[in-house]
Amino acid sequence: MNHGCIAYFSMEIALDPSMPTYSGGLGVLAGDTLRSAADLKLPMLAVTLLHSKGYFRQSLDPSGWQTEEATEWDVPKFCEALPTRVQVTIEGRTVQVRAWRYTVNSIGEHGVPVFLLDTDLPENSAWDRTLTHQLYGGNFHYRLCQEIILGIGGVRMLRALGYHDVSRFHMNEGHAALLGLELLDESARWFQRTSFNEEDVQAVRAQCVFTTHTPIPAGHDKFPLDHVARVLGRSDVFTMRDVFCCDDQLNMTYLALNLSHYVNGVAKKHGEVARRMLTPRDARHSYQIDHITNGVHLTTWASPSFAELFDRHVPGWREDNTLLRAMANAPKEAVWHAHQLAKSLAIGEINRRTNANLDLATLTIGFARRFTAYKRADLLLNDITRLREIAARVGRLQIVYGGKAHPGDEQGKRIIQHIAQTRNTLGPEVRLVYLENYDWEMGRLLTSGVDVWLNTPLPPLEASGTSGMKAALNGVPSLSILDGWWLEGCVEGVTGWAVDGAAGGKELTSENQTPLDAASLYHQLEHVVVPLYYGNRPGFIEVMRQAIAHNASQFNTQRMLKEYIAKAYS
Ligand SMILES: *Cc1c(COP(=O)(O)O)cnc(C)c1O
Question: What domains can be seen in the chain, in order of their start residue?
Fold first, then answer.
């Protein structure tokens, strides 16, 4: 049964707009990967946690400060409870784990099963019942317990469900790396030993694949090794230190690296950054880290009006995404019409939710994603006077912001507050709106319904980014820092525009980078983007259709998954 299937492990997966089981790009990528796997009829299955109380619902208080509430969702409406139970040990207690099955359906008949692990069972203690409630909730101990359930419980659940012939375990980020410990134990048992050794490490490496997603240190979980030993109730994590740790920490990224035969970053540049950043304790050799650039699932992210235009102009695009190259000569009026439809949907919804009173004729810039310091969401507001002056002299602007900060990220929350408070200081030429509770649904409306998609991360910290790919698919060109996927996707003036503080010839330092990047952003707006939008509409539409033709045909999860099949799964 289930010969040679691929088991994809991810702490978050965006499965349905009404299931708040994701926080941002990582979860959306995981969901898009599974949707493309279903399209390609790949023998894949996935494991995650149930997150029955979701990530959180965001609202802003009158001062613009983010507040959070749990978001319960109707689990049985989407998932089927399975009778199978497995056990994991946490601090000496036996914790019962069950799974709910969700099926990712595709454009054909093939479904990809997803097993959502759940410990909220009457047999468990009150604390253990909370362990699958909240995505990225609690402290480091809560996180470790969740990762034990995901990694160790996940492998045990697959075996209990009859999946004995998994050919690849794919760790989507390091959260699932404890699956390696379970596979080491399985291997030792198979060799009839009571403890694992180097032979088992080789056996596990042959089965595992690891994708690392961020150069940000907070994205790499580390736990004190003595704490891990106590929670797991085993001291063998202290043996084979080169596999489990650096110093006295269990480092989930290094565990995944040491137990995988194929490792990749998520864009060409990110591969280079990861190779520089992740070096083994034994410096005589280095990790082989490849890259596979991310993508998006096109049929999920195309607005209705563009899906209809593609159906007319490039039939077969859902089955073969590369066909979208033919959009390079789609009729310009049809492209503009599809965009105006998407834009009126977005603006209608924004005006319903807020008192922003946006209009269809004004150039609208969108910025929405997780809020965290390196994304520099307020770069556009670096010099308010300059921004107002451009809008007054060259052409009016509307700016739409959205995005959540992690509940523990004070800096991210301060950036949201700064933006919310700036709203009142911009004057009549620049309308600014901050949309609360940005999510999948709002993401679909915004990435298709603004005119220009803005991204201003501090390089080289944006591993890939995917929202700009969703925008390109819908004929919305990016105006972005050259980092992550945009280094590959930007053809200046053809698919969009670069923001690059070094463009003026000055050398960038940590002090001057942000002001120089802001200056480059204002320069592009003043001299290129705003004049093109208001003064040369056919020229602007040309960029729109080249964005689709070049970028949607390339930056999709169908192409991405074919690379995983060739490089990691076969
Ligand atoms: C696509 C998406 C993201 C990822 O955005 P980036 O710009 O790549 O960081 C985050 N959140 C939601 C809801 C998305 O749909």
Answer: 5-294 (3.40.50.2000), 298-552 (3.40.50.2000)
